[in-house]
């Protein structure tokens, strides 16, 4: 709106850069003589960006099944996040958090969001490391984050459910020691067992 008296131009409602990023108009000045003399000028208003949008992933949940012993460098997922703001307010950095120790096996590229395998994954190892609670357990939840570089930054989140498929890369059973010493009493009853401790990985489906 322009004041006819002062020429001051004011907004009449709040502006949304994501809806309209610039305005162009012509201002005409008229004197009160006769005949009327006039001048005009063009005005272009560029709306600066406010960081009023958080990045948003293209899905709120992702599900990926990973074959055990997939080659190092294999791509798990390429999630995409979008931010309708501009410049650093839309410049996205990706990160993730999951069970402790998982970051030694998979990584997310902060610039592209590409999630890749860093190290050979086996279910047995995940159970040993506490990344999976037990052999019955085959999936974990990872939180993906997309943060813009606004001030303050805004963050969008999505969940990734990662399941480990151990059908193809089944581990053989392993003994916990290479040698066992068992003592038995003389005249032990027939059928009395000596105890040998063994662990079986990936026996549960
Ligand atoms: Ca904005
Ligand atoms: Ca933003």
Descriptive terms for the model:
205 residues; mainly beta; four-stranded mixed β-sheet; 13 strands; 3% helix; disordered C terminus
Measured by DSSP, the beta-strand proportion falls in 25-35%
Apparent shape: rod-shaped
CATH class of the domain at 56-165: Mainly Beta
Mean pLDDT: 88
Runs in which pLDDT lies below 50 for 5 or more consecutive residues are 198-205
CATH topology of the domain at 56-165: Immunoglobulin-like
List cofactors, ions and other ligands. Answer: calcium ion
Helix content: under 10%
CATH architecture of the domain at 56-165: Sandwich
Summarize this structure briefly.
This protein is mainly beta and 205 residues long.
What's the SSE blueprint?
Layout: E1 22-30, E2 38-46, E3 56-57, E4 61-67, E5 75-77, E6 81-82, E7 93-97, E8 106-108, E9 115-117, H1 123-129, E10 139-147, E11 155-165, E12 174-175, E13 198-199
Parallel strand pairs: 4-11
Antiparallel strand pairs: 1-2, 3-6, 5-9, 7-10, 8-9, 10-11, 12-13
The chain binds calcium ion (CA) (2 copies).
Structure, described:
It is a single chain. The chain has about 200 residues and is mainly beta. It has a domain of about 110 residues: Cadherins (Immunoglobulin-like), CATH 2.60.40. The strands form 5 sheets. The chain has a 4-stranded mixed beta sheet, with no helix packed on it. A hairpin with a 6-residue loop joins β8 and β9. It is rod-shaped. One calcium ion binds next to loops.
